[in-house]
Structure formats: structure tokens, C-alpha cells
């Protein structure tokens, strides 16, 4: 690399590093998924069992262990904390930007590589995803390692990249299951068909039996071990409930329209997703660069798969972000001044200004109508930073300064991301019921839960929280001579009315949920 190139990529990675680690220590482990995953890794250390995942010391069959293991390493290095739980998630964000840059640099040149990195670090949802103590940051990295390794192998036939592809698949299976093999295999097949290379010679060069061996060598030992230790309950529930079940029907209310994943991608990759349609059309027309076709297949197959899935969540399509970032970057690199009217960039920026203004108004109104958060509704206006960036970009565009247009969209998005994690989100986070209720609990006293509770309590309390199955169990627990606490939900309170000695200590609505957390005591 030349000195200038090294400086530029170092600067981009430094900004990415700052963004992905922005205030990961100052935000509570609160969301449902974060709380369960972070607690699970914590319990593996406490139980001295690094095979069987548990939440609240009960079997958890949702996810394989890779993210638990990274959190365990961080816990051992830095202690139990929010920072530790998220440390490696943020690191994998930086690594994802890096491998995307290196891949784009190798296939499409320096300008596209730089722009693809800018697209990623400007994406609020990308940064948000790599802020969370969940398996998705690791899956995003390893899936894209699969995609990039395959393409480079296909072009250069260097076996190193073939083995990197299979190894990444194996780790992917340990990260989130069969999806790390199934979807990449479909993508590879379609690309080979497109390139007229789906023949015996190519299949032999792929060394598929050896690849299967590598995948199984990496992933199978843990699946066998957890199967043996749980009488195969873990394996059965993971495959049939959390894979087949999630695909066949909506789980936990996360269903929706066929178009929902496309909307997730569009919103998730703002600001540069306003060029999404133009980028894909341009990539398809410029078939000279078949890498663009390959990345298009990656994006369409992955998004299409989750469009027909019963369960739809914003994080499901995030592994496509690096591929789409390269496609968008290629489009941005090819725009000429004479193309402004043809491409309709002015109207796209006007659309961006309208969309971001609407998002800000929507967030403000949503917070204003939430009794718990109405007093911090002003933080919704921070989304207007996006809008200001759009206005500045439009001014530059009308003056014929395309470079400054792109920089404006990116810079204002980076500013918004910084303000969001250091100012807006902390304001909201301080109002979550776990933060409010925890100081009211004497941790030296017995605590249990009735029917259900916010999982973040398990992370912060750090001890098993026994379940009270019946009203009689609650009465018995409350009748103890010492002070005790019970966690529950508001919807279960009616069943507990009239119990002698019952006192509701605190009742606070869960943020962005329909449930309300309740703390009960006997004194």
C-alpha cells in the first residue's frame, strides 16, 4: 500500500473503531436478546460448564456457543460488565469493515474499497448491530468471510481461500447453525450456473468432501458434546424450534409482509441506501465486473430467503450489508457530473431529506406518547442530524461537487451515530425498569419470580432466580420471616390480589414493550 492509501484506510478504520465502541460501557444490558446471551455466557463461567448454555440456570437452546465463548474471554479479561459483553461484538464490526475494504480493493480498486467502508461506517443499523452482545456480529463477519473467500478462490484458484471458506462455514455453524452452510451453498451454486462453471471440473476443484470434513471437524464436536450432556434435548429444540420453527411460522410476534426484509435493508443502510435501486441496476448492466453479479446474488438470495421466512427481524438481513455496501460504492464511484439529471440524484436526496424528517417526527411522537419516556421525547429530534446532512449534501450536489455530497452524507451520519450512543440512547436507557428497580432490591435477601420477568435482572443479580409456579408458592415465599422479593409482570398481578403481606414496591413499563415489570415484597 502507498502511504496515502494507508493513511486513508487507517483513518476510516479509526472512525469505525470509535463508532463500534461508542459508549458500549455506558448502556445497560437491557434488550431481551442481549440480556439472555450475556447472562448465558456469565453462567457458563459460574457453573464451570463450557458446553451447555443456560439462562437463569435453565437450558437455553436458542443459539450455538461462539458468541458465548468470545464473551467468556472478555469476562475473564475485564470482569463482568456491559463493556465485556459487547467488546468482541464491536471488534468484529471493525474486522468486517476491514475485510470488506480488502475484498473491494482486490476486486474493484481503491476508490470502491474506500467508499464501501464509508457506506458501512455511515450505516446506523450496522453500528447498532455491532454494539450488541448477540451472535449476529460474529455471523456477519464469518458469512462474509465465506463469500469473499469463495470469490477470490474462484478467480485465483488458490487453495488457501478455499480452506478459509470452509473454515468460516464451520465457525458459522457454531455461531448460528445450518444457515451458515445452506445459504452460502445456494449462492455459490447460482453463481457457478451464471458463470457457466457448474461442471464436474469445478466441483472437483471445490474439494467438497474435504470441505465437509473441515466444517464437521470444527462444528460437530460441540454439537455431539451438548447433545450427550442434554440427552439431545438441546439439538432437537435448536433444529426444530429455532430453525425450522422460525422459518415456518412467526415466533414471538415477529412476522410481517414479504417486503419487510427489503424495508429493513433500506432503512438499515441509510443514508446511502437511497441509491440502492440505481446501484443494483448499474451493477447488473455492468456485467464486465462479474463480482458485482456475485454480490447481487448474495444480496438477493439472502434477503429473498428471509422474505419467505415466517419470522422476520431486522438483524436477519444484516449479513448482506457488506455486499450491498460494495455495490453502492461501485455506483458512487461511477457517477459523472453529466449523469445528475439522468440518475435523479437530486430527487433521491430530496427523498432522503423527507424520509429522515419523517423518522425524526415519528420517533418524537412515539416517545411523547409513551408515559415512561415522554419527558425525553426531545431526543427523537437528534435524527434531524441525518436531515441536515441531506440538505448540506443537496447544496453541494447542486453546485456540482459530488465528492463533498458523499462526504456530507457520511459525516453527518457519523455525527448522528455519535450523538445517538453518547446522548440520546443513554437518556432513554436511564428510564428502563431494570435500572430503576435494581436499587430497590437488597441482594442479600431471597428473590424469586412468578410466571415471567425481565431477563436483564438475571444478568445484574448474578444468582439463580427461582420460579414460583403457583399462587400458593407465592404465598409461602412471602410468608417467610425475613424480607423477600418477587419479580413478575403486571398482567399476572390480578392472580396475586388479596395475598396477605403482599406489597408492590415498584411497577415500571418495559421500554418499547407491551409488558410492565413489577417488584413485590413482603414488607
Summarize this structure as a short list of keywords or feature phrases.
mainly alpha, D-Maltodextrin-Binding Protein, domain 2, 5-stranded mixed β-sheet, 7 strands, globular
Descriptive notes:
The structure is a single chain. The chain is mostly helical and 523 residues long. The chain contains 23 helices and seven strands. A five-stranded mixed β-sheet has the order 4-3-5-7-6. β3 (447-450), α22 and β4 form a beta-alpha-beta unit. The mean pLDDT is 91.
Q: What's the short story on this structure?
A:
This protein has helices spanning 3-20, 32-47, 66-78, 82-108, 110-122, 124-129, 136-156, 159-176, 179-194, 200-205, 208-229, 233-248, 260-268, 276-285, 290-307, 321-334, 340-343, 345-368, 384-398, 402-429, 433-437, 456-461, 471-478, and strands at residues 54-55, 58-59, 447-450, 467-468, 485-489, 503-509, 516-521.
For the record, give the distance between the C-alpha atoms at the N and C termini, rounded to a whole number: 69 Å
Mean pLDDT: 91
Q: Unreliable stretches, pLDDT < 50, 5 or more residues?
A: none
SS summary, helix count: 23
Helical percentage: 55-70%
Q: What is the count of structural domains?
A: 3
Q: Helix- and strand-based class?
A: mainly alpha
The strand count comes to 7
What's the SSE pattern? HHEEHHHHHHHHHHHHHHHHHHHEHEHEEE
Sheet with most strands: strand arrangement: 4-3-5-7-6
Report the sheet-strand fraction. Answer: 5-15%
The major beta sheet can be summarized as:
5 strands, mixed
Amino acid at each position: 500500500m502507498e502511504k496515502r492509501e494507508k493513511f486513508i484506510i487507517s483513518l476510516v478504520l479509526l472512525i469505525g473503531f470509535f463508532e463500534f465502541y461508542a459508549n458500549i460501557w455506558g448502556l445497560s444490558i437491557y434488550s431481551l436478546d442481549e440480556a439472555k446471551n450475556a447472562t448465558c455466557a456469565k453462567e457458563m463461567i459460574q457453573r464451570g460448564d463450557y458446553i451447555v448454555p443456560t439462562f437463569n440456570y435453565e437450558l437455553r437452546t436458542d443459539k450455538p456457543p461462539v458468541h458465548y465463548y468470545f464473551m467468556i474471554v472478555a469476562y475473564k479479561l475485564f470482569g463482568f460488565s456491559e463493556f465485556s459483553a459487547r467488546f468482541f461484538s464491536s471488534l468484529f464490526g471493525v474486522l468486517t469493515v476491514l475485510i470488506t475494504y480488502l475484498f473491494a480493493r482486490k476486486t474493484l480498486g481503491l476508490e470502491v474499497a474506500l467508499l464501501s467502508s464509508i457506506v458501512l461506517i455511515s450505516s446506523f443499523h450496522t453500528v447498532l448491530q455491532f454494539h450488541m452482545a448477540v451472535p449476529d456480529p460474529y455471523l456477519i463477519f464469518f458469512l462474509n468471510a465465506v463469500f469473499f473467500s469463495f470469490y477470490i478462490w474462484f478467480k485465483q484458484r488458490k487453495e488457501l481461500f478455499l480452506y478459509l471458506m470452509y473454515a468460516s462455514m464451520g465457525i458459522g455453524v457454531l455461531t448460528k447453525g445450518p444457515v451458515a452452510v445452506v445459504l452460502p451453498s445456494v449462492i455459490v451454486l447460482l453463481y457457478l450456473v451464471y458463470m457457466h462453471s457448474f461442471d464436474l471440473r469445478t466441483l472437483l476443484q471445490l474439494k467438497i468432501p474435504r470441505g465437509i470434513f473441515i466444517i464437521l471437524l470444527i462444528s460437530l464436536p460441540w454439537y455431539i458434546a451438548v447433545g450427550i450432556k442434554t440427552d439431545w434435548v438441546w439439538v432437537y429444540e435448536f433444529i426444530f424450534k429455532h430453525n425450522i420453527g422460525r422459518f415456518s411460522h412467526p415466533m414471538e410476534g415477529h412476522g410481517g409482509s414479504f417486503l419487510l426484509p427489503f424495508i429493513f435493508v433500506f432503512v438499515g443502510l441509510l443514508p446511502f441506501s437511497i441509491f440502492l435501486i440505481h446501484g443494483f441496476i448499474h451493477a447488473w448492466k455492468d456485467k464486465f465486473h462479474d463480482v458485482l453479479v456475485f454480490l447481487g446474488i448474495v444480496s438477493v438470495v439472502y434477503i429473498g430467503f428471509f422474505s419467505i421466512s415466517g419470522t422476520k427481524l431486522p438483524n436477519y438481513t444484516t449479513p448482506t450489508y457488506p455486499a450491498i455496501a460494495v455495490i453502492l460504492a461501485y455506483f458512487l464511484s461511477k457517477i459523472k457530473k453529466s449523469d445528475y439529471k439522468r440518475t435523479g440524484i437530486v430527487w433521491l436526496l430530496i427523498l432522503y431529506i423527507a424520509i429522515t424528517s419523517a423518522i425524526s417526527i415519528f420517533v418524537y411522537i412515539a416517545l411523547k406518547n409513551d408515559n415512561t419516556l415522554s419527558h425525553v421525547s426531545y431526543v427523537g429530534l437528534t435524527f434531524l442530524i441525518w436531515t441536515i446532512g441531506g440538505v448540506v449534501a443537496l447544496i453541494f450536489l447542486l453546485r456540482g461537487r459530488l465528492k463533498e455530497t458523499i462526504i456530507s452524507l457520511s459525516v453527518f451520519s457519523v455525527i448522528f451515530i455519535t450523538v445517538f450512543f453518547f446522548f440520546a440512547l443513554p437518556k432513554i436507557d436511564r428510564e428502563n425498569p431494570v435500572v430503576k428497580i435494581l436499587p430497590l432490591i437488597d441482594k442479600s435477601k431471597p428473590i424469586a419470580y412468578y410466571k415471567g420477568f425481565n431477563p436483564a435482572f438475571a444478568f445484574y443479580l448474578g444468582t439463580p432466580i427461582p420460579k414460583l409456579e403457583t399462587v400458593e408458592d407465592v404465598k409461602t415465599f412471602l410468608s417467610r420471616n425475613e424480607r423477600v422479593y418477587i419479580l413478575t409482570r403486571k398482567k399476572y398481578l390480578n392472580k396475586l390480589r388479596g395475598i396477605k403481606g403482599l406489597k408492590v414496591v415498584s411497577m415500571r413499563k418495559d421500554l418499547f414493550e407491551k409488558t410492565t415489570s413489577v417488584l413485590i415484597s413482603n414488607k
